[in-house]
Amino acid sequence: xxxxxxxxxxxxxxxxxxxxxxxxxxxxxxxxxxxxxxxxxxxxxxxxxxxxxxxxxxxxxxxxxxxxxxxxxxxxxxxxxx
Length: 82
What we know:
Layout: H1 32-41, E1 44-46, E2 52-54, H2 67-75
Antiparallel strand pairs: 1-2
């Protein structure tokens, strides 16, 4: 009896990254108290820029940040939030 390993051909369109297909392109600023709720319950959050999405990933240092969220955040008064 012999065994043989068959390789499955890659049928993904060219240019797709196979390492982390669901990785966000950039991260958004969201109210801190809504992050855990979204991660646990699957509810959607609203970013400062208005984008609505469920929290699925945590940003790592150096991750790209949404320019619109960053601009809005920098314009907020210090200590004025949750």
